[in-house]
Design a protein that fits this description.
By secondary structure, this protein is mainly beta. 4% of the residues lie in helices and 46% in strands. The chain has 3 helices and 66 strands. The strands form 9 sheets. It has a 15-stranded parallel beta sheet that branches. Strands 17, 18, 20, 32, 34, 37, 40, 49, 52, 53, 56, 59, 62 and 65 form a 14-stranded mixed beta sheet that branches. It has an 8-stranded parallel beta sheet with strand order 36-39-48-51-55-58-61-64, with no helix packed on it. It is globular, with a radius of gyration of 28 Å.
């Protein structure tokens, strides 16, 4: 008998009480009938919990687990609202047929508490406890695993009234083991057979989720959706709780289309439109591999932001017309209150779009305002707001917005090999697409753009696509991005601030931005890179031995190796295993705010063949910081070629100092020993622009601006600044560029700060 078989037999004998002599081989003896659940450390790091720490074999208060007067040695102590992902283990010679255990409110609370426990698959609630309170005996449960094709379960403890004393325990958790089953054949599931009906104003979420569950049971296949318009509402969504980077972190995300815990699935939309109501996540791809979504459009019937047409302006007032049926609102104390299905929001600012072109009106950026409003009659309103001086004219469109980001339009989380082909995201309440801790993502065709017939000018409430802590290859090709609040694509790492060096191997780290907390930045076994906080210089790497999330904002990280010398509070750490390469090719980016694209990754970046048309800030930004958003990842190889830039920089935004802006935020630039970004090639592009800087760079080396064509116009008022601006940069080549009207650039066309002229090479 092999050592591995001996160990398995010994463990089986201990867990089941069977005689060791009877355990001879996997072929002769079935696996144990019941196996205690070993909760992986990763599950605790992936857990979402409203407050405090998720604990193994201890209660939320770090005491013995106790429900209804009975003590339990094993289990999970948490606090509602929480959701814990639990992977189903692979069993040699067998399989998990069911998951069983018990749950209840811990006796150690100081009040009654009220919690509903749910065991969920990625698409359905498999078991629910009903409302449980302190003193009630634990409720037992058993849910089928193999029969449902599950590779992951989700344990959710939800608050019922409020979160006071909601100490929730999961105890006596076990896997029931059976014989290894046969392989299911992938299938084609037509959603119509599950009761999904187009063209009716009735929630289609439950029927679609039933079809997804059936496809999971078959081990994959095609989810076929007959062409039509389908409506989805929060009431029929699957309530889940997890952290989403760069958003407001609501406790619960109502998920309408959960493509979760799936392998080898293709969703064929056949050109359908999914219309969503209320605050929901329309589409979630989580804990899945090889999922493709094709020919599908996503929109909200009532957008989160409202639009109005300017009818007149003068030195004191602006009159607008708002279609109250499309954008419901009321006036309370002479201020706007915009109304949606299940939400009411005030106003914080607006964006102004030009009549006819859809361009953001020059030099407007965000216009902060929440002032006096008076109804005039019909759909017309008078705003005590002088927008004439901003250049706004009758016929222009105002987009009234707040600063909230509840839910993205599409979330990709812990997923591998995800493909979106001709998927259109027309509206979102946050990012249109947010991907985190995922790898190998492809977007081809589709994009984030205005749905025909809506007469809107605005799409996404933030970035069109946003990638945080991803790896592998990100490919975005032949897509259209327009009308969004921020970037067409933003790729970065989320780094944590070091708060304390606990000992020679241990750090206490913190999620520094309130919208980027909680999700698992580090797991045991992964590489961690140190960043000097004041200089932003990347340093050595180490290996994570353990990571404990003490609350949603803090991690205690222990390394296998001793900490590098000089690491201190105020520095930062990022995951060195999650750096993607990026291909952004043959896309159109137009009429958006802030920036066209943003890249912060050491992986190869190719920006090729795109049109950047009136992106009102910089077209391309290479960023990096460990002081604001804590979005890091120094660029090591960037190629920007054969793109066309048309009249970018019509408004001023942070970090948008040139059409191509290289702007890491460095506190102590003069103390840097190395450069942050490097190897940036800008060649064979066409710049059709008024007088604005072409290239701005901080802390970058080996920059080439070669063989580009620059065609100047007088479409907007120029900035009167030098076309090239370098702040502590080195090895710069500006050569072979053609300028219209003709001119030859010299070193006098460069603004140099802490950059010797000898480091700039020009074809003078």
């Amino acid at each position: 008998m092999s050592y591995r078989m001996f160990s398995w037999c010994f463990a089986a004998a201990c867990m089941t009480g069977m005689s060791f002599e009877t355990c001879r081989s996997a072929e002769e003896v079935p696996p144990p009938a019941r196996m205690a659940v070993e909760v992986p450390a990763a599950s605790l790091l992936m857990a979402r919990q409203e407050t405090g720490q998720t604990r193994l074999d201890r209660s939320f208060k770090d005491a013995e687990l106790s429900i209804g007067g009975k003590k339990y040695a094993r289990g999970i102590g948490t606090h509602a609202t929480s959701m814990i992902p639990l992977p189903v283990p692979s069993i040699q010679g067998g399989r998990v047929v069911s998951f069983e255990g018990a749950c209840g409110v811990d006796d150690g609370t100081d009040g009654e508490g009220s919690v509903e426990f749910r065991v969920m698959s990625g698409s359905e609630v498999l078991w629910s406890s009903g409302v449980m309170k302190r003193g009630m005996p634990a409720k037992k449960f058993s849910v089928k695993v193999a029969a449902n094709g599950l590779k992951n379960l989700y344990l959710m403890a939800d608050r019922v009234e409020n979160n006071s004393y909601d100490h929730a325990d999961w105890v006596d958790l076990a896997w029931r083991i059976g014989k290894e089953g046969g392989t299911m054949q992938a299938a084609v599931m037509n959603v119509a057979k599950f009761g999904m009906i187009p063209g009716v104003r009735k929630d289609q979420g439950p029927a679609l989720r039933a079809a997804i569950s059936a496809l999971r049971r078959r081990g994959g296949g095609v989810l076929s959706i007959p062409r039509g318009v389908y409506h989805f509402y929060p009431d029929g969504a699957l309530d889940m709780s997890f952290y989403i980077s760069n958003h407001d972190q609501p406790l619960v995300h109502p998920v309408c289309v959960p493509l979760t815990d799936l392998n080898d699935v293709r969703v064929e939309g056949n050109g359908s439109l999914f219309l969503f109501h209320g605050k929901v996540i329309p589409l979630l791809i989580m804990d899945s591999e090889n999922v493709t979504v094709e020919r599908l459009a996503v929109d909200y019937e009532r957008p989160y932001y409202s639009e109005g047409s300017v009818t007149s302006v003068d030195d004191q007032f602006t009159e607008v017309e708002i279609d109250k049926k499309t954008y419901p609102y009321e006036i309370k104390n002479n201020k706007f209150v915009f109304i949606g299905e299940g939400w009411r929001e005030g106003m914080a600012s607006c964006m102004a779009f030009e009549k006819g072109t859809g361009h953001i009106i020059a030099n407007t950026a965000d216009i902060g305002w929440n002032g006096h409003v008076e109804p005039v009659g019909g759909n017309r309103l008078k705003l005590k707001w002088d927008l004439k001086k901003r250049g706004i004219k009758p016929g222009d469109t105002l987009v009234f917005r707040n600063y909230n980001r509840p839910h993205p339009g599409c979330v990709i989380y812990r997923a591998r090999k995800t493909r979106l082909n001709n998927v259109a995201l027309h509206q979102s309440t946050g990012m249109a697409l947010l991907a985190q801790r995922s790898e190998d993502i492809s977007i081809k065709g589709g994009g984030v753009f205005i749905r025909k017939g809506t007469k809107r000018v605005h799409t996404s409430g933030a970035d069109a696509t946003h990638f945080s802590n991803t790896r592998g290859e990100i490919i975005v090709e032949k897509a259209l991005f327009e009308g969004m609040m921020d970037d067409a694509i933003n790729v970065h790492s989320t780094c944590l601030g070091i708060q304390e060096v606990v000992d020679s191997h241990t750090l206490r780290c913190r999620y520094m931005h309130r919208q980027a907390v909680g999700f698992e930045v580090f797991l045991p076994g992964e590489k961690i890179r140190f960043i000097n906080g004041p200089t932003l210089e990347p340093r050595e790497t180490g290996t994570v031995k353990s990571a404990v999330k003490t609350n949603e904002k803090e991690l205690l990280i222990t390394l296998e190796e001793p900490l590098p010398g000089g690491v201190k509070a105020g520095d930062a750490v990022e995951n060195a295993d999650f750096y993607p390469s990026v291909v952004f090719r043959n896309n159109i980016v137009r009429n958006n705010r802030a920036r066209g694209t943003l890249f912060t990754t050491p992986g190869k970046v190719l920006v090729e063949g795109n049109l950047f048309d009136h992106s009102s800030g910089a077209a391309i930004l290479l960023a990096g910081d460990a002081q604001g958003w804590y979005e890091s990842g120094a660029c090591h190889e960037v190629v920007i070629r054969r793109n066309t830039f048309i009249n970018n920089l019509t408004s001023r935004y942070q970090f948008t100092n040139a059409i191509i802006s290289i702007y890491p935020e460095v506190k102590q630039l003069n103390n840097q020993k190395d450069y942050y970004h490097r190897n940036i090639l800008i060649e064979d592009n066409v710049f059709k622009t008024f007088d604005v800087p072409l290239l701005f760079a901080i802390s970058a080396e080996n920059i080439k601006f070669i063989n580009n064509r620059i065609i100047y116009n007088n479409d907007y008022k120029g900035w009167g600044q030098k076309p090239f601006q370098f702040r502590r940069c080195a090895n710069i080549l500006i050569k072979g560029n053609r300028v219209e009207p003709p001119r030859t650039w010299t070193i006098a066309d460069c603004k140099l700060e802490n950059t010797p002229g000898s480091q700039v090479h020009m074809d003078e």
